[in-house]
Amino acid sequence: MATRPPIIINRLDAERLQRLIDEADDKDLAVARSLEEELARGEVVDPQQIPEDVVSMCSQVQFTDLARERQIIRTLVYPHALAATEDGISVMAPVGAALLGLRIGDTIDWPLPGGREVQLRIDAILWQPEREGQFHR
Fold first, then answer.
1. Which domains does the chain have, with CATH numbers?
2. 77 to 25, 36, 45, 68, 114: CA distances (angstroms)
3. CA 106 to chain centroid
4. Which one, 17, 36, 56, 76, has least CB within 10 Å?
């Protein structure tokens, strides 16, 4: 796997994600492990310090699946909010976990089930809670 770009994670998101990781069942174990690696390597900062170009939880992100040359818009959510979010993608889904903490312009190679990989590029952050002053959502 290629070197992954540096990531920045909201401290509150990191705490909530760690609880999800700790409670992951067998079907989510591979994603939970990858997400835990991301938390360990990421720079964790207070919510007010999240730059406007970083994907945080509840951000609406425009990204491209480079292999398929397909642009996608999704809102990165916790699993419990998936049903209530029309364009939601769970952070416990492989692609959702890949998006966390990336900046506009970043590209990441990320493992998928079955040994495949996806290459994603962040094109825009259409909405971000920290940018809107929602630091404790």
1. 8-132 (3.10.50.30)
2. 18, 17, 19, 23, 24
3. 12
4. 36
